[in-house]
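Checked the freezer inventory, then went back to the computational side. Two predictions to log before the end of the day. The first one is the construct we discussed on Monday; recording sequence and tokens without edits.
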Amino acid sequence: MDLTQESATAQAIAGENLRGSAFDYSALAPASARIAKGAADEIRAKLRTHIHAAIVVGRHLNEVRALLDHGEWAVWLSAELPMITERTAFNYMRAAAVYEGKSEMVSDLPLGILYQLAAKSVPDNVRTGVLERRAAGERLGELEIKAVLADVRWQQKEAARIAEEKERNRKNSKSRSKAARERQAGKAEEVRRRNDLREQREQQAAVEAVEMIARALGPDLPRLQALISGSLWAFFQAIVDAQAITGDEAERIAPLGDRPLDDRVDDIGATP
């Protein structure tokens, strides 16, 4: 069969004509136009057969894969089909899973782009959208599909970047919160330390005050304890009031230290 006859056969298989082609053949001589168009149709027919074959191969691989575990399947593949790498086998299997019954929609596309479109990393809605657009008659070729896939990869990377940034911010916020809690705990500990120190100083001052009173009163200390036992607050108030005593009266009271407690109390309350 010569090339013209093959072209006619290819045109019959494809069901297309010169007028329906995406290429403008009007600038070519009729004979050249028919040869070029026929060659394109024949190539598409071969590609269509190749894609169908890839889907059939993938279907059989999926059947065997379901029967064997991973180790057994890899050994079987290497022994029975050494010309197919495991990666290529998975491409066939994905193609079968995605394009079974849909080969006519993608028959004019290179297998490489079909494998990319069938990849698990491509969301189902994106893949379904491409197939539906082609089924509706839109001329969505290799370049357009690559652009769609590139956009998907960009969106996935951007989503991963945003998720990573959120996680980093969460960790930073957690770290800042921990630091703030540690600072707050440090401040609280400092307040407690100062309060404890103040209480220690007050207790020490109280001890020293009692010792001073005991030394000043000597054997009269029990008598003082008896006098203030029921009116401790009045005693403290009297001490505060005593701070207002004038210098002359302080000199008058000072010599009382050598006299009995009852005489000293009477003289302190007496009017000069």
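The second is the one RB wanted added to the comparison set:
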Amino acid sequence: MSRSKRHHYIPQFFLKGFTNKENKFFVYDLKQDRFYDTPIVPKNVFLEKNRNTHTINGEKTDFIETEIFGVLDHSAALLLKRIRESKQLSIDDAAELYKFLATTFWRVPSNDSRAQEKIQNSSLKSLGIEIKHKETGETAPEELINKLKSLSAFTDIIRLASPLWEMQKNIGNYDYKHWSCGIDRGHNITGDMPVIVRNEDIDDIFCSEFIFPVSSNKTIYYSNGKKLSLSKSDKRLRKKLDILLVLKSQIQVCGRDKIYLENVINSSKVYQRESQVEALKEEVFSVFK
């Protein structure tokens, strides 16, 4: 059976929320500082060849892509369809959204080194993982654990499982009332860092406020217990959110309106210093009190 090769770190079903009527969008390559020549379909961007292919016992396998992401993405696609079509977020959908965002945040390339460092410097137990002998119940020795940590397939599985465990551990602190849907009449875009988190130093994004554009006309706000004032979410502030999204992305950004996207990218180039970016972020997050 042939293996998959085109592995999306941003799922196609998510990207489709930012396409035009022809199911295409304009893509800007941040590394090459240029637009793609023509509008692109989601199938051809935000991917890496064999990103989730690993060699186990001398054989290549794509089980993480097909058997893990395949299952997660199927339910998440249905979830985002409901969210995009409704005006409010149901309790059940909020619970599903926790799972989708917990894995999406750690799925993107910009968090590769951060995830690897976290895994190497943490005990498996602190990551929600235990390895025991199936017959004796004896905990795996440190030597075996270190050997497993050197395997890319093993660390990628932990990378997916750990945020779900973190979410489950803190589930009692999460509150459905922290979620809000905003209907945007602007031109929201997305990129390879689709979730904008206020406190970027924490591993559990649900311990911070964050903003997540789910389509070109709808944005999810997570208040983390603070009061949300969307009256400030005017056209000017929405543009600043998009500028921040460009600054936090590293590979590509996209949107259905090329003129608007070009304007946002040009505006983002004004922010040369980290202090300027932080000031912009605080202005964007001023919707939370």
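For RB: The radius of gyration is 20 Å. The mean pLDDT is 88. Let me know if you want it refolded.
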